[in-house]
Amino acid sequence: MQISFSSAALPKTGAIILPVFDEAKPTAAFTAVDEASGGAVSRAMKASGFKAKTGKSLEIVSPGDLPNPFVFLIGAGARKEFDALAAQNLGGAGAGKALATREKSAVFALDGFSGGKLSDGALAARIAHGARLKTYRFDKYRTKEEKDDKPTLTKIAVNTPAKDAKTEYGALDKLGDGVFLTRDLVSEPANILYPDEFAKRCKKLTALGVKVTVLGEAEMKKLGMGSLLGVGQGSVRDSKLVAMEWMGGKKSDAPIALVGKGVTFDTGGISLKPAGGMEDMKWDMGGAGAVTGAMAAIAGRKAKANVVGVVGLVENMPDGNAQRPGDVVTSMSGQTIEVLNTDAEGRLVLADALWWAQETYGAKTVIDLATLTGAIIVALAHEFGGMFTKDDKLAKQLDAAGEASGDKLWRMPLTKAHDEMIKSEIADMQNIGGKGAGSSSAAAFLGRFIKEGVSWAHLDIAGMAWATKEKAICPKGGTGYGVALLDEFVRANFE
Ligand code: BES
Ligand code: MN
Ligand code: ZN
Fold first, then answer.
1. Is 342 close to ligand 1, i.e. is its CB under 6 Å away?
2. Where in the chain is the domain with CATH 3.40.220.10?
3. 362 CA to middle of ligand 2, Å?
């Protein structure tokens, strides 16, 4: 999708998208389009009783004298409440309308459309960003799609007098690249995207100035990563650990570590999952996907911070050589784990990835992302990622980043009681808790692999990585959840 900004006159072809506030005075852009249509736009608005509330829209086909085939009015609600997220969502709504036509181009007509909370340039840039995110499509395996079913839209223009719109869009363009990378990774089937292929895609970040290191099974064995390796033991695909370093900050600053669960397919292993819905487990690498996309966004915009992304990549398969329930493995930290359920594998992968990240980089802030538990979906559905941390300051920072980015988080309990749920009869801990609080006992397990003095949060994104319904700025499928959150977390606190 080509995105451009212009302050010239509106084009005479393509769809026109007109945002409308719920106030009496129309914007300059509205007046211009309405006049060019000979008043047809305002007549249509009146006749339909259009209310400019958020989420409302009106489609006007070929109004009056206007040469353009469509005008879409998009409700923007109250001007003084209009903020960055509202702008993104509005961009998504407008793009959604344009995508449903057979037009090749669409223009957002923003002259006079000023919000209460953003500069005009920033507002235009956010609209463009939301619009672009909405146009994502994963169609590489559709070889027989009818031409008429494929969207025709290739250009989105933003018409605004704001001179700085394009500059404001710069970092968002990189953020969009990161989100698209994550959506691609999450959408790929597991026969295509297995650990080695995932590592290869990480390698591509080298072009952005990221230093990428890939560890294979032999190296991980030497390091004593028995916990991660045990999960991949039943797979014919080799497990990998990838580190992506972006050192844009001061040399003396320890990097922030972003650590992701990258189970490229989770059958459950010997504790096999039921067949129904198992295909969803191709996106059990959503945490690693978010970390990789975030690294692309952070490096892409040349963030002035030191950040390292670490992803543990394994495939969890049942096999004659697979790990058994009851096996005891030794993690890189030296702690032993009784594997009571081979389907609680994400935490086993993260245990070694977390420890390695702290040992290797001396990270003092560690955030991990994982599609870790079904229980978090029971608690939070598909509205929030679950946040587990004992650090109130970090919780605040992450909450704020969630609010600002739209990747919302809800803090969940993590206490000594949850840690007690993973006591083992035979090893230092077991990999499952009791009946209740499955997301919290999983978090407590991860906490055993965090060093003293390290500020750490675990984000359970099982409900957020994939959408079965289309959203404001996202078609159904991989969402890219976490990329904007991490990018904003780094921007707001470390630059
Ligand atoms: N990958 C799953 C969690 C999951 C479930 C992610 C649904 C996305 C959607 C994880 O590895 C898993 O299997 N967790 C088990 C843990 C249990 C065995 C303690 C679960 O949640 O049932
Ligand atoms: Mn599992
Ligand atoms: Zn899993």
1. no
2. 2-162
3. 29
